[in-house]
Amino acid sequence: MRALLLVLFCTVALQWDRVSCQKTVYQSNTHLVPHRNVWRSDRPAEGTPNRNGDECDVVMNLSASQRCEFVKNTPDCASDEGFIKYPVVTFCLFPPNLLPLAITLYVLWLFVLFLVLGLIASDFFCPNLSAISSTLRLTHNVAGVTFLALGNGAPDVFSAMAAFSHPQTAGLAIGALFGAGIFVTTVVAGSIALVKPFTVASRPFLRDVIFYMAAVFWTFIILYKGHISMGEAVGYLGLYIAYVLTVIVSAYIYNRQKHQLNGSAQTSGREQGEILPSDSYREIQSASIQAHDDGEYEPLLPYTQSTAQIFLNAINPVDSRTWRRQHWSAKVLKVIKVPVEVLLLLTVPVVDADKEDHNWKRPLNCLHIITGPVVCVLSFQSGKYGLLLIEGEVPVWVLILCIGVFLSGIVFFTTTNERPPRYHFLYSLLGFVVSMLWISTVASEIVSVLHLLGVVLSLSNTVLGLTLLAWGNSIGDCFADITIARQGYPRMAISACFGGIIFNMLFGVGLGCLLQIFQTNNVVMLEPEGMLCWVLSGALGLSLVLSFILVPLQCFHLSRVYGIFLLIFYIVFLLVALLTEFRVIQF
């Protein structure tokens, strides 16, 4: 983390000097001309290309007195779908001499947004997906490559969808998806091999690498063409369906063969055709012991809480039992997340199939019927439809609020605190939709902040995507997979690596472009931002080809030497990418 921050601030310093020099040169020979209420420069800055036709890039070449008016009248500066108009805040509210302070605040704000994104996905989105999977009685293999993949990849997919919503930020999506792919296949996989050298399951590994290479090659062709049609976007989703069917069929064949060889008593197989380690039973035992330990905090005598106590306990995100044992850094992060957690607890219902009462909290769940739909209409398209007036008088969100109050009253007076109603599973669907829109909202803010940083620092969207956005979305998975490997499950960790990035690539590009095609009724233009995009795609393709060749040559054993090789490969790639961005290396 320290190294990441060091690279970030060095990049900011270098780019700040470069932007200052460019601005000085530009102002000496440039003037502005108004054109259709949009300020345009009649001469582009030397060495500052217009990225994907993004007119907002020109703002740093203007004098400080002209920037505010420019961002207010330039559509590209006001086209972000986030709630906060960052260009206006930056150039109209902050004095020019405090611009470095604004950049620092935006970096800290990005950190908070990534924390919130991970919180929503882990504590609200994934549990509801698990409840839906249990309700539908899906097998572990089907649930793993559908709902579980969606839960794990939600930040990446929604960030890509938000980036694809505008042509000037499409480079963020490409950079993030390719950057996350090479980060996971090198840094995460290499770290797992360093922590716990192991022999990977051959067939699942080859299957995942082949499908991912197909997805990367397809994206490479799309970038070469410069556009993607509806049929090609649907093809991405079709390729993932083929991947899911392959996983299901291979798991079925594997389990059938294992059943024939070992008998029905030994048919327990690992998800995606892998055998669980022999100490998996110990993990289940330890989980049972942990649950038993938690039971000692339960009251010895029956105790009935009042409705008010149930509500207050349900919206309290701090567990006093674990707070005392936490490290000070964890406590600081918890304090940062508490306001957001309270807001999410008030708006997103969570159904937990593992609990006896399925997490039924009558007063809070009745409130969710009111707050959940209101959040949906106010967060969808940045409140565009929620603020519409019915007959020119009543906003849509007020109508939704009234309907929610009526339904909430019915549920409150027809249920009890002790037992959940039969239709309680419907709350998981509501929680799924509300948390999905919360994730989409936060992802839009992240994309808007990164777009602003790219404009201010004259960085391309691709380099921002492959660094900040890819790191922010992948760092949590990195630590989670390393922890799983340390616990003795490296095969599970490596499967999660490749399974997740396949879903992110196919759904991120396919669904993101498909939604954009539906909105514009036209093909989506995907113009590469210079040579950096080709460096990125070439590096990802090379890493996959090397894994496809070298891992079988090692009899599918991932050693520490191979882990070091993968880490060095990523460092070299990142160095080449940054030198290409700064035009030290030119092809």
TrEMBL record:
Signal sequence bounds: 1-21
Residues annotated as domain Sodium/calcium exchanger membrane region: 107-248, 428-578
Protein name as it appears in the record: Sodium/potassium/calcium exchanger 6, mitochondrial-like
Domain of life assignment: Eukaryota
Organism, scientific name: Sinocyclocheilus anshuiensis
GO MF annotation, one: calcium:sodium antiporter activity
GO cellular component: membrane
Keywords carried by this UniProt record: Antiport, Calcium, Calcium transport, Ion transport, Membrane, Signal, Transmembrane, Transmembrane helix, Transport
Short name of one Pfam family: Na_Ca_ex
Transmembrane segments: 98-121, 142-164, 170-193, 205-224, 236-254, 364-382, 394-413, 425-443, 449-471, 492-519, 531-551, 563-585
Gene3D superfamilies documented for this protein: NCX, central ion-binding region
Single biological process term from Gene Ontology: calcium export from the mitochondrion
InterPro entries to which the protein is assigned, alphabetical: CaCA_antiporter, NaCa_Exmemb, NCX_ion-bd_dom_sf
Protein's membrane topology: Multi-pass membrane protein
Protein's cellular compartments: Membrane
Keyword Transmembrane helix: yes
Ion transport among keywords: yes
